[in-house]
Amino acid sequence: MYEERMARLRDRMAETGTDLVVVGPSSHLAWLAGMSPHGDERPVLLIVSRDHAGFLMPALNVDSQRPYTKLPFYPWTDADGPNAALAKLLKDSGADRSDLKIALDETMRADFALLVIDALPGAARGFLTETVSVLRGEKDEAEYGLLKMNAVLNDGAMKAGFAALKEGVTELEVGQAIRDFYAANGAKAEFVSICFGENGAYPHHHTGNRKLKANEAVLIDIGGRKDGYPSDMTRVGVFGDKPEGFDEVHDVLERAVQAALAAAKPGVAAKEVDKAARDVIVAAGYGEYFLHRTGHGLGIDIHEPPYITGTSETILREGNVFSIEPGIYLQGRFGLRLEEIVILRGNRAEVLSDLPREAFRVKA
């Protein structure tokens, strides 16, 4: 699998005129080489050219990382520093021209990047946006299977959260019920946001000791991780009777999700998906209460390209996985958001979750 990904990267490098790709310890490296070397202040770099690839690696980590790759290591010691090993790796990679175009891992440490920049002062520099990131965005069948499995597992975690609602329970206690569900199913919680009543009006509310009262809206946004890939989903419900305006806002959001799902196809600009959802909300009179973008990509990282924003010119591609999550936030009252993760397959957006978007109803 990783040899195939490396071959795809080299094809993409040729298409984009990229001579050198430089990757640090990151999710980019995990995707490209299946490696997660120990990360500290000691530089670790994978450098890929059209006909060579190798690792700049601290000597003390070489033995532990050898089982994970056949690529050559260029080791360096604390006594000698990394510069000589890096110079040899760059020479072996053919990086001895003045007109190089290099792509740097935008997520790695700045001091790692500066090592390469200082060694290649005349190179044209960019990030991995048009190389590794594009390829990571085109999920293969194995990734689809893992993301689907995590989405269905997350359905169960969501049900466990709403099943834990009772008068006087705290947001943290409901969150713990969800964490326990993940653990019982071999996953770990990536994030758990439980929002009672007015706390739902904060899109990034931090779960706390707020106690649940009767006749309140509840928003739950959660994600877990199993076998290296995550999930992400938001659902809403009520404990007791619905607060005034709940059904109207929920209906607007459901129509916004459906509009975005219809717009999301390979070949469409990401901004058109955002516009489809936003137009529904604006037409209903709630435009000022939709406070964020419509979605974000999901893969090894919970947030990765493509980003579904009102200005993104990114053209969506077959295999892209991203969220569709319009929200309406009414300060002092409640906030609602409906979030699906979709994959573009067969010229349409396929929802990964099997859980309906209908509001949960829990008796007070």
Explain this structure.
By secondary structure, the protein is of the alpha+beta class. The chain folds into 2 domains: 2-136, Creatinase/prolidase N-terminal domain (Creatine Amidinohydrolase, Chain A, domain 1, 3-Layer(aba) Sandwich); 141-362, Alpha-Beta Complex (Creatine Amidinohydrolase), CATH 3.90.230.10. It contains 10 helices and 18 strands. The protein has helices at residues 2-16, 27-33, 62-65, 83-92, 110-119, 132-137, 141-163, 171-184, 246-263, 270-283; strands at residues 20-23, 45-48, 53-58, 73-76, 101-104, 124-127, 188-196, 216-226, 229-230, 233-239, 295-297, 304-308, 321-324, 327-330, 334-337, 340-345, 348-351, 360-362. It has a 6-stranded mixed sheet with strand order 4-3-2-1-5-6, with helices on one face. β3, α3 (62-65) and β4 form a beta-alpha-beta unit. The longest helix has 23 residues, at 141-163. The chain is elongated and about 70 Å long.
